[in-house]
Recover the amino acids of this structure.
């Protein structure tokens, strides 16, 4: 499956952004989907994930209560609604796919930059 992330940009602290990831070339509903991020000088970290049906989600502790992941298996998209953004949320955000939730995330989008100013 090929993934294309979009929606990044510059926002002030306390603001909101919505990231989207469009999937093509595969059966989208066969993949658990996740969002990850990588800040400058840091390793990539998990942000949020949603199961194939959308019935279950999980979040990193640092974003829980502020970010919401959702998916649309008709439009083949996964979204990340980010509220109450903080400067420490500044990173390149990547969407990723995990076939049937087995093993690791092995399909990745190109990343979209989110910059949160203080």
């Amino acid at each position: 499956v090929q993934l294309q992330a979009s929606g990044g940009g510059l926002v002030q602290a306390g603001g909101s952004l919505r990231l989207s990831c469009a999937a093509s070339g595969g059966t989208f509903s066969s993949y658990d989907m996740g969002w990850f991020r990588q800040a400058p000088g840091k390793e990539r970290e998990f942000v949020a994930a949603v199961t194939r049906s959308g019935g279950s989600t999980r979040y990193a502790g640092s974003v829980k209560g502020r970010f919401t992941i959702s998916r649309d298996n008709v439009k083949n998209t996964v979204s990340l609604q980010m509220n109450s953004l903080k400067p420490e949320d500044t990173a390149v955000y990547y969407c990723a796919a995990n076939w049937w939730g087995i093993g690791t995330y092995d399909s990745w989008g190109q990343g979209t930059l989110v910059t949160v100013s203080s």
Remarks:
- Residues 18 and 81 are 4 Å apart (CA to CA).
- The chain is about 0% helix and 55% strand.
- The chain has a mean pLDDT of 96.
- The first strand starts at residue 2 and ends at 6.
